[in-house]
Write a structure and sequence with these properties.
This protein has 21 helices and 10 strands. By secondary structure, the protein is an alpha/beta fold. The protein has 2 domains: 166 residues, 3-Layer(aba) Sandwich (Rossmann fold), CATH 3.40.50; 269 residues, Dehydroquinate synthase-like, alpha domain, CATH 1.20.1090.10. A 6-stranded parallel β-sheet has the order 3-10-7-6-4-5. The protein has a two-stranded antiparallel sheet with strand order 1-2. A two-stranded antiparallel sheet has the order 8-9. Helix 12 packs parallel to helix 20. The N and C termini lie far apart (52 Å).
Length: 445
């Protein structure tokens, strides 16, 4: 099993990057390997006294109980906080955890996305270091500089310090429910479109862009190419390599100082599905599974953008009415409008002109990076990830709405905004879905 990647030699270090900026990775160590949990006490150099171990009921059984025992045998005092299921990463839950933090030397998060996010947020605000013990290779947020929390019904990424260390036994992450590693692979594969969104945003608005995050993920895409069946089947070696890839994707966000290299239009589709679920009385799928389907949609949009003619572009970029936002988001409408105003300029024609003038360069970059939806479908399907509405447990109509309105829930420029800017949306939404899923879409009456 590959245990080192592009960021392995940069942990805990500061270095000058080719992008012209100095970077620093605060995470000092990563131990992904068999027997890693037993090595935790020797990794906690400088920690003295008691630690606060946080898990939920499932992750405590998966690894938390074992980690607590190992720490006690290593002469640490351990205070345990085990949340009942179901557990959501909300600001309220994170604030409750913060209130339970005392004088501990540090916190130990045992879990996946939800547990890691609330511990990361609380540790940052309490001024305590934390380590994470992943229990699933399901997402890339373990080592990122942000915590994703639901705040007043809207998912927000809140700046929070990454863990000082990561400890994971491949046997643990491989024992997670069978749909989690495929979801993690889908989350990783989304970087092909997310990073392109970031690059185009830099070209349009002058946002700083660093190529290192994409290069790191590209390395792992090569390592995983022959391990997709192992991911589908839950093989420890394959899932362990996937986890390393996801950790490096998180480091890419830390290097960038933003989640932009790992979260673009495909993530906004997933965020929209999550945010509107309680309003519509429905459930959601795993984050990575939704992101993977969103990646197919974003890839289809880029393909249609490549086929378009700048001479025929006509902007549809405008703010929805207050009534429309109230109908769609109810009590969350004000939060959504505030986000949407961050990126909806008064003069969209000027922005359209700027894109048209730079089109030769932009088109070249899209051609160089673009991964067609049919190739992505093959890879995601081989890894066991959903590749259409049915596998995701949803409908074409709901995904059409996520495509049309996903741009509204976050103030970040993505391909969803570009599609409105050049006039691909809203009128060609059905064509986007047909290209994304490789089959005809039944149109709404």
């Amino acid at each position: 099993m590959v245990r080192e990647g592009p960021f392995s030699e940069k942990l805990g270090r500061r270095w000058a990057c080719a992008c012209g900026r100095e970077h620093f990775l605060p995470t000092r160590w990563v131990d992904v390997g068999y027997g890693a949990l037993e090595r935790i006490p020797e990794q906690l150099e400088g920690w003295r006294g008691e630690v606060l171990l946080v898990a939920d009921e499932a992750t405590y059984e998966a690894a938390g109980r074992r980690v607590a025992l190992v720490l006690r045998e290593g002469r640490f005092g351990v205070r345990e906080l085990v949340f009942p299921l179901p557990l959501k990463a909300t600001e309220e839950v994170a604030t409750h955890l913060l209130g339970r933090v005392g004088g501990e030397a540090g916190l130990v998060a045992v879990g996946s996305g939800t547990v890691n996010d609330i511990v990361k947020w609380a540790a940052h605000r309490a001024g305590r270091p934390y380590i994470v013990v992943p229990t699933a290779a399901s997402m890339n947020g373990y080592t990122s500089p942000v915590a994703a929390l639901l705040t007043r019904g809207v998912k927000r990424t809140v700046p929070s310090s990454p863990p000082v260390g990561v400890s994971c036994d491949p046997e643990v992450v491989a024992s997670a429910p069978g749909d989690m590693a495929p979801a993690g692979y889908a989350d990783l594969r989304s970087k092909a479109v997310a990073d392109l969104d970031w690059w185009i945003s830099g070209r349009l608005f002058g946002e700083h862009y660093c190529p290192l995050p994409r290069e790191a993920v590209g390395f792992w895409e090569g390592e995983l190419k022959d391990r997709l069946q192992g991911i589908r089947e839950g093989g420890p070696d394959a899932v362990g390599v996937l986890l390393m890839a996801l950790l490096d994707s998180g480091f890419g966000m830390t290097v960038a100082g933003t989640s932009s290299p790992a979260s673009g239009g495909e993530h906004l589709i997933s965020h929209w599905l999550d945010m509107t679920a309680p309003l519509q009385g429905r459930g959601t799928a795993l984050h990575g599974a939704q992101v993977g389907v969103g990646t197919l949609i974003a890839s289809a949009l880029y393909g249609m953008l490549l086929d378009s003619d700048p001479g025929e572009w006509s902007s549809n970029l405008e703010l929805p009415s207050e009534e429309e936002l109230r109908d769609r988001y109810g009590p969350y409408a004000d939060e959504v409008e505030a986000e949407l105003r961050k990126k909806t300029p008064e003069g969209s024609e000027d922005l359209l002109r700027k894109l048209a003038e730079a089109w030769e360069e932009v088109r070249e970059e899209i051609v160089r990076r673009w991964v067609p939806p049919d190739l992505l479908r093959r890879e995601l399907g081989e890894a066991g990830a959903p590749i259409g509405p049915e596998e995701l447990g949803t409908t074409y109509d709901l995904l059409r709405d996520a495509l049309l309105y996903g741009r509204e829930v976050r103030g970040r420029w993505t391909v969803l905004d570009t599609a409105y800017l050049v006039g691909l949306l809203p009128s060609r939404a059905d064509e986007v879905l047909e290209r994304a899923f490789g089959r005809e879409v039944s149109r709404r009456g």
